[in-house]
Specification:
This protein is mainly beta. The protein has two helices and 27 strands. It is elongated, with a radius of gyration of 25 Å. 30% of the residues are buried.
């Protein structure tokens, strides 16, 4: 027999559900989460495509932070028991100083959660240690979980203290005590909902230069996925621009407005540059050369990402002077010029 509870207007059944795939739920955090230092250990609540979601105590509250797998120079940020190190399961240990960013809740496929149906959505109860939240997800993201009588009895023995613990227990099928019912009802009432989105797509990036103006000294089309210069700033890491098979080449990005630049990421295809310059300008006429890069590649023709810190430089235009090809038989080719910055006030 399925149990039911009252939530707001009308009665809604409480169900045991699991996500069809991992769902990442961004959480707004106004607290300053600070820096993680070498040797610090955190509970790992889950993983996204970009990093570890961790539990961060700040004063008397618990917040969710994000530790990226690697920093912008490619250094591994943390160790886990996955690497056969003597670290308890569910814990990460910081290797390098790392700024903690606000992180997401991760509803993990295969984990059972309690949920209440409201229209075409579910209110899903999430608890991890001292952190708790109610999140709203589309019905087509979740599927019911049928429990055996033995599993239901096992979970029932722990109620009402455990309402929904990722990796642990959800509500049992069958009768539920008034104390447990009231605990879940109060939990849903007292916790603000946060919006849910599906897991982030690793083939797309969001940045400040999407849709920017692009001018190039040449374009080669013919090989797979080669396209127009506009593909350099379309956010799609599957499309790319290539130059003609000569050097030097020039790529100029018009951001359409002045930005205070924080960092720049160049997503190179195998036909990368071994030498290039980076210049910025406010008017497209007077240029300031801020970087000259000489890249060493040990072997082969690897795709790579060059992460360049911009240190708050203010500019509307960004220019790449591509000087030396990794292979003289090719041109230069980039998937994306990823730019991050803030509007100048």
């Amino acid at each position: 027999m399925q149990c039911s509870m009252t939530f707001g207007a009308g009665d809604a059944p409480v169900k045991n559900l699991t996500p069809l795939r991992d769902i990442v739920i961004p959480v707004v955090c106004k607290a300053y989460l600070g820096w993680a230092m070498p040797g610090d250990e955190f509970q790992c609540m889950g993983r996204t495509k970009s990093g570890y979601s961790i539990l961060v105590p700040v004063d008397d509250d618990m917040h969710i932070g994000l530790i990226p797998f690697r920093d912008e120079w490619g250094h591994v940020s943390a160790e886990t028991s996955d690497h056969r190190l003597k670290i308890p399961d569910g814990i990460i240990r910081i290797k390098i100083p790392t700024k903690i960013r606000p992180g997401p809740i991760v509803l993990t496929a295969g984990t059972v959660y309690s949920a209440v149906a409201l229209g075409r959505k579910y209110n899903v109860v999430y608890k991890y240690g001292k952190y708790k939240a109610v999140v709203t997800v589309d019905m087509d993201c979740m599927t019911p979980v049928a429990k055996t009588d033995e599993e239901a009895r096992s979970v029932s023995a722990d109620m009402p203290e455990k309402v929904a613990v990722p990796g642990g227990d959800a509500l049992p099928d069958g009768p539920i005590s008034e104390k447990a019912e009231q605990a879940l009802r109060d939990l849903v009432k007292e916790i603000p909902e946060v919006a849910a989105i599906e897991d982030d797509d690793p083939t797309h990036v969001v940045h400040s230069a999407i849709g920017a103006g692009i001018s190039v000294s040449s374009t080669h089309q013919g090989a797979g996925e080669e396209g127009e210069p506009s593909m350099l700033v379309d956010g799609d890491l599957k499309t790319r621009w290539s130059s003609e098979y000569s050097e030097p080449q020039v790529v100029t990005v018009d951001l359409k407005k002045n930005l205070k630049l924080t960092n720049l990421r160049l997503h190179w295809e195998a036909a990368s540059a071994l030498q290039y310059t980076l210049s910025i300008s406010n008017d497209g006429k007077s240029w300031k050369n801020i970087r000259r890069m000489n890249v060493m590649v040990s072997e082969g023709f690897p795709e790579r990402v060059d992460a360049l810190e911009m240190k708050g430089a203010k500019a509307r235009y960004i220019k790449l002077g591509l000087l030396k090809r990794i292979n003289p038989a090719w041109g230069f080719s980039l998937f994306e010029i990823e730019v991050h910055g803030e509007k100048v006030r």
